[in-house]
Specification:
By secondary structure, the chain is mainly α. It has 2 helices and no strands.
């Protein structure tokens, strides 16, 4: 339980900053960029593939 509390405390500043950024006139709703934010789209792809019965495959890490 202490690990969970510590992790949440560490995330508070980041989440608060993201919420403040959402108030910026330059912010437009949308998904994270799959180029800069690989994990969420990869997770979504894996879930979608499992839902339709596709076998999991290993994704090759991109260079760079």
């Amino acid at each position: 339980m202490e690990f969970w509390k510590k992790t949440n405390r560490e995330d508070i500043a980041m989440v608060e900053g993201m919420q403040i950024g959402r108030l910026s006139p330059g912010y437009h709703d949308g998904r994270f960029s799959p180029y800069h934010e690989v994990t969420p789209p990869e997770f979504q792809r894996r879930i979608a593939n499992r839902l339709v019965g596709n076998k999991p495959r290993r994704k090759v890490a991109r260079a760079g």
